[in-house]
Amino acid sequence: EKVPLKLEVNGVKHKLSVEPRTTLLDLLREQLHLTGTKKGCDYGQCGACTVHVDGNRINSCLTLAVMQEGRKITTIEGLANGDNLHPMQEAFLKHDGFQCGYCTPGQIMSAVACIREGHANSEGEIREFMSGNICRCGAYSNIVAAIQEVKN
Ligand code: FES
């Protein structure tokens, strides 16, 4: 049986009806058609599904949609300001912080959180904070460079 759910996604308020077992990831992708957030592993191991909830990063595959009542969600679609990319998106482009791009939305959402939460003070700190975001193409050093540029 579905239950009512109110939340805000990228500044848009939604009144939804969801199955209690639906994850936030599936809600975003399947009900709201925000497919920028990716499903890699669906069990908390890869970081492709990273979004922000009230400004804090989470793995949306590990979170039930019904737990988000009243919260503000930001996905990769909500990061740019109109036609202007977010500085972290610009930095990923400049430093080639991706190859295939599948992990990139999650990487960028974590990278923004890395700076906001104060974990970008050294390369080691950045690598530690970003360690939950797996990149099979191995773009890690370019990702670190992008974060360092935005931090400085
Ligand atoms: Fe959520 Fe992999 S899809 S961590």
From TrEMBL:
Residues 3-79 form the 2Fe-2S ferredoxin-type domain. Coiled coil: none annotated. GO terms for molecular function: 2 iron, 2 sulfur cluster binding; metal ion binding; oxidoreductase activity, acting on the aldehyde or oxo group of donors. Keywords: 2Fe-2S, Iron, Iron-sulfur, Metal-binding, Oxidoreductase. This is 2Fe-2S iron-sulfur cluster binding domain-containing protein. It comes from Hymenobacter qilianensis. The lineage of its organism: Bacteria, Pseudomonadati, Bacteroidota, Cytophagia, Cytophagales. The chain holds residues 58 to 209 of 214 of the full protein.
